[in-house]
Structures are given as structure tokens and as C-alpha cells.
Amino acid sequence: MGESTVTPKPMAVKGEEAKRIKREALGIGDRRKHHTRAATRLKAHAKEPDTRHRLYRFRFYPTEEQAAQLERTFGACRWVYNEGLALRSGAWERHRVNVGFAETCRALTGWKRAEGREWLGEVSSTVLQQSLRHLDQAFQRFFRRQAKYPRRKKKGRSRDSATYVRTGFRWVEDPDRPGTGLITLAKQSEPLDVRWSRALPAGVVPVRLSVTRDRAGRYFVSTLVEERIAPLPAVCVPGTREPKVVGLDLGLASLVTLDDGSKFDHPRLLKRYAEKLARLQRELHRKVRGSRNREKVRRKIARLYALISDVRRDMLDQLTTRLVRENQVRATRGRSIQVAVFRIGEISEVRLGPVSRPVPAPTCVAGNGGV
Q1: Window from 5-9, 19-23, 139-143, 360-364 with minimum mean pLDDT
Q2: Distance from the CA of 352 to the CA of which of 27, 67, 301, 322 falls in 20 to 30 A?
Q3: Vertex 154, ends 309 and 119: CA angle to 5°?
Q4: Contact at 8 Å (CB) between 175 and 199?
Q5: CB contact at 8 A, 104 and 81
Q6: Of the candidates 336, 340, 356, which has an alpha carbon nearest to the alpha carbon of residue 348?
Q7: How far is residue 222's CA from residue 57's CA, in Å, rounded to a whole number?
Q8: Alpha carbon of 76 to those of 137, 276, 305, 355: distances in Å?
Q9: Do residues 208 and 166 touch, judged by C-beta distance below 8 A?
Q10: In DSSP terms, which residues pair with 225 in a beta bridge?
């Protein structure tokens, strides 16, 4: 029997040779600022003691000028992400050179100065750098074997989003309504028309903003703040000090069945809107691709699916909040989806994930957990 040959792993090019390849073949400039000081790893944002990061999501209605500027921002973030992915992939495939976040940021400077790419200057540089940061995080998850290799973003397929760090927006709190205020994004002159469904912690400046647009054309802004979350009182069995335990049985006939026999049914929204969805899908099929009428019908379908998603999310949020506040410990027994994989009509109506996944960190702070 012949000996099996083991293919050696490709060795990465390092040192001065790697710098030369980056400079001459890849067009990545050398470090100019602080070139005499050794590179140090960036430290994460240091939170204040006894605080946690919490995300608040609000809808806002941009003006025509703001919508046009956000459209350019989404497109630029998508282009920079794809260009950075191509740079890092090509550097390793052709030259066996590792390119990190710092190198892609230096390459971004060259991209903005290239002829015909003046439109990149219409977008805040911090937003474009955050897009490269997201690409670097995707590579880190791939190296840790937590995700697949990063893929290119495509218009109409990927979610439109842009992340603004603290230097990329201006926040002015309303003294009459603490926790609300005016948010003005970089490269925009007017504040956003935000519908404040709830107030942020008074006197706290958001750490980061994320602006997104869904397939239905709705705009949302997610604000990340540092907040001190007060723990909820422990829930015990009446007359004793034993923690109150609730048992959950997840199924298809009913969404959740508690150990006391009470049931929570599925909303069955797809069944309710099946005829309307079928009619809109037939109407979409008859429209010419690329026409405005086809886009109108597509928006109607997207809004209907957004309505279904919002109702489901609201119902699950209310259910999980009630279970956490009324009980101290949660024990879940879920039905195997593989057993009923052929019952497509029922599986499409079921969303067991938000109920069966572990309790998030803010809830654990409140003193209640799940097993």
C-alpha cells in the first residue's frame, strides 16, 4: 500500500515582502499616522459599572432629501463591503497575504480618491469604516467556525443598513420630554422625524445608531444605550420561599401549553391572508419585470408580510414577557420539527424559536431564567 500524502497548508507571506505586495500589487498604502509607533489592538468600548447595553428601535419618516441621501449611503456601504471582501479574498488567493481591518481602511482612502468614485465622498467616512468593521467581524466568525465564508451583498437581496458611531450623528435631548430629542445624521442638515414610542433613559447619549430599511420601504433607527436595569423581585410559590416554576410544551396544535393546562394558540396569519397573498402573487406575475407597476405590487406584498411579521413578534414578545415576570424558572420541552417536517402547511405557521431560545441577558438580570 502506498503512503498517503498530506497536502501541506499554504504558508502566509509576512514581513517586508507582505508590505511590498500590499503596496505594489494591492494598492494598500503604508501607515502614515504614528508610523514610528507599534500598532496596538483597538480596545472595546468600556461600559460604566453596573450598566448594560440595551437596544431601542423606533420608526422614522425621512424627507425626500433624507431618503435620497440614505439611498446613497446604503449603496455605498454595500459597495465598500463587497470591495473589501474582494480585496481580502484576492490577496490570499493570489498572493497568500493576510489583509485585516486596518489595511481595508487604508484601501478605502484610495478608493475614495480614484477617478469616478467621487460619490463615496457624499457618505460619512465613519459609516463606510463600520461597513468594513462588519466585514472583519464576518471573517472572525468564519475563522472561529461559527459561520460560513462571507458572501457578497446584493441590492434587493441584502438588508439595507448603515451604522453610525458616536461621531457620525448629533443628539440633542428635549428638555420637556427627557429621553427623546433630535437625531441628525452625518451629511444631513435636518433631524429625523422619529416616532418616539417610548423614551430612552434620561440624560444618556446613545452609543451607536443603526439605520435600516426593510423590503416594505419602512425606515427604522436602532439606538444602543448604556442603561442600569433594575432587577425584578423574585417570584416564589405563595406561602413559601420556593421559586415558582412553569413548564412549557411547544407544539403545532397550540403554540405553548403550560403545565397548568392553559394554552396559547397560533395566530394563523398565513391562513388568514392566504387568498390576498395568492391574488397579489398572481398580479405580480402578470406585471412586466422592471416596471413601476410591478414595483407597486411588490411593495404591497412586502407590506403584507411585514404586517404578519409584526403581529407575530408582538404576540411572542407579550407571551415571553408574561412568562418571565410571573415565574422564576422556566422549563421547556419542544416538539422535534424533524418529526413533522412534511406538514408544511402547519410548520409555516409555527415560530417556536423566540419561545424556546434562552432568556436574554436583561431578563436574567431581572432574576428569572430558563432551563
Answers
A1: 360-364
A2: 301
A3: 115
A4: no
A5: no
A6: 340
A7: 4
A8: 19, 36, 27, 37
A9: yes
A10: 54
Task: Please give the model's pTM, rounded to 2 decimal places.
Answer: 0.82
| Res 266: pLDDT | 83
Higher-confidence residue of 353 and 263: namely: 263
Question: Grid coordinates standing for 85?
Answer: 471582501
Helices 64-95 and 101-113: crossing angle in degrees, nearest 10, is: 120
Count the neighbouring beta carbons within 10 Å of the beta carbon of residue 335: 15
Checking 205-208 for CB contacts under 8 A at 24+ apart, the result is 205/166, 205/171, 206/166, 206/169, 206/171, 207/45, 207/53, 207/166, 208/163, 208/164, 208/165, 208/166
Among residues 87, 85, 88, 74, which one has the least CA distance to residue 158?
Answer: 74
Model pLDDT, residue 157: 83
The 10s digit of each residue's pLDDT in 279-333 is: 999 999 999 998 999 999 999 999 999 999 999 999 888 888 888 888 877 666 6
Whether residue 1 is predicted with pLDDT greater than 60 in this model: the reply is: no
